[in-house]
Each structure stands twice: as C-alpha cells, then as structure tokens.
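Recall the central idea of this unit: under ordinary conditions, the amino acid sequence of a chain determines the structure it adopts. In this exercise we apply that idea directly, starting from the sequence alone.
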Amino acid sequence: MQQARRALISVFDKRGVADLARGLSSLGFEVVSTGGTLDLLRKEGIPVTAVSDVTGFPEILDGRVKTLHPRIHGGILARRADAAHTAQLAEHGITPVDLVVVNLYPFEKTVAGGASFDEAVEMIDIGGPAMVRAAAKNHQGVAVVVDPEDYPRVLEALRSGEGTVPDAMRRRFAAKAFAHTRDYDTAIASWLARQDGTEEAFPPRLQVGLERTMELRYGENPHQGGAVYSRNGGGGVLGGFRQLQGKPLSWNNVLDADAARKIVALFEKPAVVIVKHNNPCGVGRGADLAEAYGRALATDPVSAFGSIIALNRPADIRFAEAMADLFVEVLLAPGYDGEARERFAAKKNLRVLDCPLYKPAAGDVELRPVDGGFLAQPPDAFPDDPASWTCPTRRQPTPEERRALELAWMVCRYVKSNAIVVANADQTVGIGAGQMSRVDSCRLATEKSQLPLAGTVAASDAFFPFRDGLDVLGSAGITAVVQPGGSKRDDEIIAAADEQGVAMLFTGVRHFRH
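Accordingly, the structure predicted from this sequence is:
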C-alpha cells in the first residue's frame, strides 16, 4: 500500500478545506494547490506549494490551463507497482500525487441563477474533472475526495493507517468521484441541448443521477428494505423539507406526504388536505386553516385517523388547536408560527415537516419503475382552465355549482382511478377511489358520505362509459357533474343528465392516476 506523500487540493466549495489541509500538513503531507484555494490556505498560514511551481509553467488563458500538465497528471496516473512507471517519474522529476481533493465549478447553480450563455460556459470545469477521473482511475494508488463531508473520514483514516487510505475506502471514493463527474457532464449536456430550443421531451438516453439522502427502517412492508434518493441538482425530496420533530419518516409517510403536498398546492384560498394510503380522504378550503381543516375532516373523520395532512399556508395556533384531538402521522406546511410549534411539540410522535409548496416546472419528467426499465411522462400537475369547459346539457351549472365543480375536479386528478369526487363549494363530501368499475366508485363516493348529498356536485376522472354511474349520482341528490367527455355513449349520458335535471360540463381532459 503506497504511503501518501503529496496531496493536491483544488476546490470551488471551500467548506472545511483549511482544516483538511492543516491536518494533512501535520501528518507530513506536501500540500499542492492553485487559484483561490492556494490563496485561502496561504492566508490560513498553512504550508502550501503552488501548482505553477510544480509544473514550472504559469497559469494561462485566464486560469483555463493550470493543472493540465504531465507533472500533475503523471503524478496522479502513474501505477505505483509498475517499475517502468516509477522509472519514468524519476527520469522526469515527477513526484507521485497520492491524494486528490477536488470539487467542481458550480455549473448547475450558475445556470439556475439566470447566468448568460458566456457565464455558464465559463463554469464548465475542465481541469477539475480531468484530475478527478485520473485519480479515480488510478484509485489503487491514489485517494480521490470530491465531497467536503468526507474530509474528517479521510483524516481519521490517514491517522489510524500510518499515512495510508484503506483499499476499500479508496474504491468507495473512486465510485463516488465517477458519479460526481457523470452528474456534472449530464447537467452540462442537458443545458446545452436546451439552448437552441430543440431539446427532446424524451431523449434517446435519459441520465438520472440519484443520491441517497435517507435510510428507512423498512420499505412498504417490514420485510422490505427502504431508502430515499434525491435527484442531483434538484431542490430535494418534497422540495427539500426540514423535519422539525417526530419519529423518522417511513416509506409510506413519504409517499403520502408527496401526494398531499401536490394536491394542496392547487388551491389559492387557505386549504387543508388529508391523505390516507395515497388517496385524499378529505379536502377543505376556508377563510383560514382552522375552518378549512374542519371541512376536510368532516368528509371522512374515520379514515383521517393516522393520516397525513398538508397545508398551503404556514400553520398557526388556531389550526393547531383544531387538530389537537386527531392522531396524525405527518403534518407538512410551508412554515409554522411559534405558538403552533409549541402546541405540536406536545405530540411527540407527530412528524412535523417544514417544506415549500409544490411547484411543477416545465420540462419535469416523472419516472415510474417497471420490470427492466421505467415509464416516463411529464407530471399531470398543471391546473386546467375551467373557461374552456363546455356544457352539453340543457341546464347550465349555477355559479355555486361551478365553484364546487372546480374544487372536485382539482381533487379528482390525485385520486386513484377509477375516481369519483363528490363535493360542495368548499369541501369534499365523498370520494370513491381505486375501483375497477366507475359505477362502483360512484356508489362508494355516495355511500361513504358523512355530509348531506343534496345539491352537491361530482367529478369523474374519465368519461362515463354507461349511464349507470350518472344514475347513481343523480339518485343521491347530486345536481351537477364534471367529466372529460369523449365516450361513444356521450349522447346517452347527456340524455340521462337531462332526464334528472343534472347540469354537466365536459373538460376534454382526462386525469387517470394509477
């Protein structure tokens, strides 16, 4: 095992780098550096050698060329056990580099900040990835570190290993390094493809970089393992949430929190969404969160036990007091006031998440695994335009019915198909989810209702294939229905609605959710 003698450090993210260099120096390493890293280490009083002194050549082209030199890459790439390589290093006066510490220019952050084309191009790192890949290739003799979080681990390994980094750790670091450059190149390639407006929605090759951010006690069931991965360069799972209190999240908690967060973001007025088993079991809106919560809970108070609740406003004390008697697994909101936090603190098992509202972006791709691959599609997350809906029935919906139809239609897209949502203007009244026939979803939505059905409306995520579903809704007292339309039996369905005096709107858009 090669004893480390020289460390090359060149980082953009300078967190912890001074402590690392100081520790390496105390262990007898020669530290070589360049650019801003060199300046920082000198200011910290740490012995450091400039790369230009090693190469005998100054940095040129505004710093574009500084480490691309045989005295650097020869020292990184030479195989330590190869006598010919060792002889060539000696012949040319090249010192082996045994530790490479590099992180790259912040390309994605620069682009996200609205940089110009030229500014973005200057953030395409060349020398950094070259050193990282060289060190990772030659990891049998070189340790490469790209993550500041690994600095303490490296120092501890060197102290306990008499100046060497263990083989297994070098392999892990090499794998991490190649993943780092892969994600970096993918980000650049994706950005370049967007510049002329011809980027394909579904390119021939789709690279998805994932980083494990959480290990779970188990997966969907106790006999399955589980973990959470976030996409590199994104905002993070659930928008980059912070857990403020409570037990660790489970697999099912994360799935249900995702569904609840996406539904509640559709509402402008204060709204509360209650989710159970990835389906909404109650949605309400009101003058404030407490009123919205009362309406959401009234839909199905039995199913709300052990649920996930999402808010579209910061939680306040009135909401916290309203929710005090319900057992809830997870609460997520875009902020909490001090009194609400204090009230929730008494619920030790309640998982309280502070996370931003869901905001889908154009170009987002949603992946779902199937055996051997993935299905890909844009998320069905952008609100429809009610102004484009048409009314084929004799009776037009009233303004109050229209408000209710719009609420039911928003909720319907996040209910498992076949989906029927019964609602009034401010809350869901009954939800039929996941049935194999639409008429059964109609029966379920009406039979489960805890609130008066007379004068309510209903939304169907897809067209009615037969009039039986509409007959169930009409006989229950529902006065208006919104649905995509497009069935070959639309005339029969419209006639059934007219018979019962039911107003009907066609959206022209289907919202299946499997």
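The longest helix spans residues 167-194.
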